[in-house]
Amino acid sequence: MTLPQPERALCLILARLLEYPGPQWPETVSSCEEALVELGGGRALRKEVALIQGFLQRVPQRTLGEWQELYVETFDFGRKVSLYWTAILFGEERDRTRHPQRGYALWQLQEIYRRYGYDLLEGELPDYLPALLEFVSQVGIPPELSRYMDVLQAAMKEAAGKLREAASPYEPLLAAAGSLLQKPALYIRGKEAAP
User: Fold this and answer.
1) What is the pLDDT at residue 144?
2) Which among 165, 168, 155, 178 has a CA at the least distance from the CA of 72?
3) What pLDDT is stored for residue 194 in this prediction?
4) How far is CA 168 from the centre of its chain?
5) What is the pLDDT, as a whole number, of residue 44?
6) 96 - beta bridge partners?
7) What's the pLDDT at 195?
8) Can you list the residues of the chain whose pLDDT is less than 70?
9) pLDDT (0 to 100) of residue 141
């Protein structure tokens, strides 16, 4: 089953914009802007497109170095929010005896990715939101993953709320991702999705 192109494109745009803003980030932002223009603003995705455009309008207000600092402060050292969505819900402790739900969820996500032919970058955890969004852009939300959507929605809502309180420019991206992952067009039936 082929996913609708607009939903696939938005998942990939969000994945790219939520990655660390490295040296290629200005080109990434530019290609995301172009992809949004090509996509248009169909009624079904108007909210998500507007949220992403709101973020993109803020990009020129900071230098690449400032975006890098903000990213680290927001998602790494400052830990206002984690992009590892199981960590939001189950904690970041690596001691699996204290947080067995997270370890089990990570293992299941890894297996889902493997089953559908998606390879994570070396050392990347499967609950990293940009990786999940990229997977969904390629495959959709298979039945095995759909069972985590309620948990993911709770994590995204909590994260977006924290970023809203902090007046973070990243808040619209998490809000758009949370909204987009609720779209029925992204959900696929098991037998149709198998590679």
Assistant:
1) 86
2) 168
3) 44
4) 16
5) 79
6) none
7) 46
8) 1-3, 41-42, 77-79, 91-100, 185, 188-195
9) 87
Instruction: Confirm whether pTM is higher than 0.85.
Output: yes
Q: Which of 169, 156, 164 is nearest to 66 (CA)?
A: 169
Amino acid at 91: G
- Alpha-carbon distance of 53 to 39, in angstroms, equals 12
Tokens 């990229």 belong to which residue?
134
Q: Please say whether the beta carbons of 131 and 15 come within 8 A.
A: yes
Question: Two tokens at 70?
Answer: 């903000």
How far, in Å, CA of 40 to CA of 174, rounded?
20
> Mapped to the 3 state alphabet, what secondary structure does 41-103 carry?
CCHHHHHHHHHHHHHHHHHHHCCHHHHHHHHHHHHHCCCCCCCEHHHHHHCCCCCCCCCHHHH
CB-CB contact of 111 with 143 (8 Å): no
Tokens of 127: 């609950």
Are 140 and 193 contacting, i.e. CB atoms less than 8 angstroms apart? Answer: yes
Tokens of residue 74, six digits: 């927001």
- DSSP string covering 135-186, please? HHHHH-B-HHHHTTHHHHHHHHHHHHHHHHHTT-TTHHHHHHHHHHTT-GGG
pLDDT score of 187: 75
20 HSE (CA, 13 A, CB side) = 9
Q: How far is CA 47 from CA 54, 80, 192, in A?
A: 11, 25, 29
In the chain, count H helices and then E strands.
11, 0
